[in-house]
Amino acid sequence: MATLELSIDEDVAVSPVKRTRRLGPLFWAAIAWIILIFAAAGLVGVLPLPSPTDMDMLERRAPASALHWLGTDGLGRDELARLIYGARISLIVGLCAPVIGVTIGGALGMLAGYFRGRFETLVVGSMDVLLAFPPLILVLAIVAYLGQSIFNLTCIIGVLSIPAFMRVARAATLTLARREFVIAAQALGATHARILLRELLPNVFLSLVAFFLLGVAVTIVVEGALSFLGLGVPPPVSSWGNMIGEGRESLDVAPRLAFIPAVTMFLTVLSFNLVGDTLRALTDPRQGAL
Amino acid sequence: MSEPALLSVEDVSVDLPTPRGNLRAVDQVDLKIGAGRTLGIVGESGCGKTMLSRAILQLLPKKARLSGGVMFDGQDLVTLDPERLRKLRGRSLAVVFQDPMTSLNPVLTIGTQLIETLQEHLELDSVAAKRRSAELLAAVGIPAPEQRLMQYPHQLSGGMRQRVAIAIALSCEPKLLIADEPTTALDVTIQAQILDLLAREQRRRHMAMILITHDLGVVAGRTDDVAVMYAGRVVERAPTPVLFKKMHMPYTEALLAAIPKIDAAPHTPLPAISGRPPDPTRPIQGCSFSPRCRYAAGRCYREKPLLAASESLDHQYACFHPIQVTAGVCA
Amino acid sequence: MLGFIARKLLYLMPVLLAVSLLTFLIASLLPGDLAYVILGDQATPEKVEALRHDMGLDQPMWWRYLGWLGHVLQGDFGRSFRTGQTVLQAVTERLPVSIELMALAEIIGLAIGVPLAVACAVRSGSAFDRFMTGRAFGMLSVPTFLSAILLIYLFAVELRWLPATGYVPFQEDPVGNLRFFVLPAVTLALAEWPGIMRVLRSDMIATLQEDYIAMAKAKGLKPSRILFVHALKPSSLTLVTITGINIGRLIGGAVIVETIFALPGIGRLLVGAIYTRDLIILQGVVLLVAAGFVIMNFIVDMLYAVLDPRIRYGHA
């Protein structure tokens, strides 16, 4: 290519083009929704809602009314209450599982990228074995043997997300570890721990946060799918997946029973995906998808 | 020139919008080349010579704005409809790019890339096209052409790849070949071979050729006319022997002085041109070369000199203080 | 080329071994005892002890693993204590269904994703491009079971055009067979096409900026040829990678879809085994699916080399 053209491209790349377009209205709408869901889930004890487990057999599949703002489900339970309690469960699992992934995976990745050598081969190799399983199959298998519970579910999904976080952390560390500020710190006699924590971690952090948010979205989906099949959160605890699964029975008479939790779940997953992807685009423009 | 020119670039300018402002890559360039003649375009990196070649081919980047006219064989390429332009390209108008590693498609065989051009423009059947491709490869000096047809670009050396690119360019007997820095990406030892190959084919086919380079030494003896470009403009134009004997532009003189001479004493420092080419987004008032010119004086900083003829009509330059030196270099 | 295949095969063996070990370890996670589960309410301490001895459950773990592995390598994956069928029988019965589902889903996904990717790459930056990219992104946030519910509601409940559940083998009734597969395959395809489209699009945008595309234009080739031969072929490598990566998700999605649409495939076998606590089947199916997944990835790696001659011959 012409040298002239090359120098033009360099100019464009060097001057930071503010992608304000990215933090557009969609981004803020997503943030708003996330805050709303968190608020509703957090304030659930304070809100004037009927109990999500109280069954009213006379009022089954009732449409919206003053008492039941979103109607009742197949067993006469308040839909809105179940929705918000379901949000709690989905958010708890959705947040805790990636936390396991990001702490263990992030740590392993950083250590592997920093120390290299046989340790790195060991870590990457064992992650490869984990990745050799189709993920849902592995989750199903472990749930089958260990039993259904929120705790088990969170742990399994968390452990399965370790390879992804490991990769992100390792990739970020590999590019950073060779930069001057690390060599400078080493020359000043800093210990490995200090370098890892003070120099590398802050830089790797942002990529990890972006992936964390994406991990939340994926976890909500996986938990939802399992609960939908009856293999996730055990009833009578309500989760969005459970509700959709139960709503499936009433598709012909009361489709809203499936669609209300479905839409809520979709909006939540979309919001986390949007925020996570935007952050990922900001930290690594090459991989930005939007 | 009595006969109408094969290619006539008329007052062509190319503007590129960038975040830092408008970039004038090519500034009001006029050029003519007749059938069977060679024109060398010489200039430093960034002087706009490649943008000019893209402008002629109508292959500018999407954001670029072209003004002016490009008359080729009686037709204005700028306003020509895309389908007729497509038929001209590869057939009457061919190009050889600088880096054959990137200009050849890495996942297609050499044969495919040759044959598709032949089939597109000459409508040969695959057997005839294959035969012709092998002939072309032999003509450009590639041994064992039939085997080469099945190979991929990365299996060939740099010099061979460029020969392939030349074969592709020559395959449909073009009237004009544009060679954009054809040897810059190659080893020095191969450069002369490739240039000789181009010159030979040009003479044999009576083809017009534009040779774009940053090296004045390349055009000596190989081109009929030379145009020197600086900062997007043509600053001197003359038949090649005339230019080398008595150039008028201080810039041309400086370029010539920068060529190493074999008969100079050892350890003679090479006079480099001080300073850097101007930033194209910030045009300089007055002559673009004035900051670096050792003859620059008052008027040079205020006014832009225009291309004008001197004593002979075919020698034009743009300078207020032209030199009248006869250089001691054999053309 | 042969050396390349041999090296990859050599890497395959330890991975398969590790997969078998992991599967076995998961099975040993069972908090209770397999014998108890099998006997159910007929469990008495003597019977449990006898069954344990019979099944070799009182041996040390590593011994049991080797024994199991030995059986597996001879093709004996165990026998279901619920249905009496061997694992291999159950799997081979259901394999064609799952393969048909996944193949159809991938084909439909490609049929949607590839043209969209090409169209968007050519018009990159335009309103069309941004709209389609946005749609793809949104689609990625729709879980498979959600699409399934939506499609069932629209086409089976409301419009009554297509059946919600059911299956008939292809040999018996091709048209009927395909009718039953439409909704499930489309559901899966809806999860596939955004990934395909996004990656292919960005790859093609990069490819279209390469010098050899400018060269192809300078040669005066037809735009369609430039697009589909010069631009798509280098980008097809990414397509193969994506398809390979998707296989894992496809298998997971197939599990959900088969269960929802009641297709008698391997996914449904797996879920059914969980519902009925048929742990022998579970163990065997997990091993087979995981091994199959590893082998499919291996094949994808091979396909890589075929498509990119640089990998085959090594760099010049």
Mean pLDDT of chain C: 83
SSE string of chain B: EEEHEEHEHHHHHEHEHEEHHHEE
Uncertain parts of chain B: 325-331
Q: Please report the two chains with the greatest interface, counting residues with C-beta closer than 8 angstroms to the partner's C-beta.
A: A-C, 46 and 52 residues
**Helix coverage percent of chain C:** over 70%
Percent helix range of chain B: 25-40%
Number of strands of chain B: 12
How does the major sheet of chain C shape up?
A: none
Shape of chain B from CA axes?
A: globular
Poorly predicted ranges of chain C (pLDDT <50, ≥5 residues)? none
Strand content of chain C: under 5%
From the alpha carbons, calculate the radius of gyration of chain B and give it in angstroms.
21 Å
Strand content of chain B: 15-25%
- Give the oligomeric state of the chains in this entry, treating copies of one chain as homo and distinct chains as hetero: heterotrimer
Widest sheet, order of strands of chain B: 6-7-8-3-9-10-12-11
- Rounded to an integer in angstroms, the radius of gyration calculated over CA atoms of chain C is 24 Å
Order of helices and strands of chain C: HHHHHHHHHHHHH
Distance between the termini of chain C: 15 Å
Walk me through this protein's architecture.
The complex is a heterotrimer of chains A (290), B (331) and C (316). Chain A has 290 residues and is mainly alpha-helical. Chain A has 11 helices and no strands. The longest helix of chain A is centred in the middle third of the chain and has 37 residues. Chain A starts with a helix and ends in a 7-residue tail after the last helix. The N terminus and C terminus of chain A are likely disordered. By secondary structure, chain B is of the alpha/beta class. Chain B is 32% helix and 22% strand. In chain B, the strands form 2 sheets. In chain B, strands 6-7-8-3-9-10-12-11 form an 8-stranded mixed beta sheet, sandwiched between helices. In chain B, strands 2-1-4-5 form a 4-stranded antiparallel beta sheet. In chain B, a hairpin with a 2-residue loop joins strand 4 and strand 5. In chain B, helix 4 packs across helix 5. The longest helix of chain B has 18 residues. The C terminus of chain B is likely disordered. With 316 residues, chain C is mostly helical. In chain C, 78% of the residues lie in helices and 0% in strands. Chain C is built from 13 helices and no strands. In chain C, helix 1 runs antiparallel to helix 12, helix 6 packs across helix 8 and helix 10 packs parallel to helix 11. Chains B and C meet through helix 2 and helix 4 of B and helix 9, helix 10 and helix 13 of C.
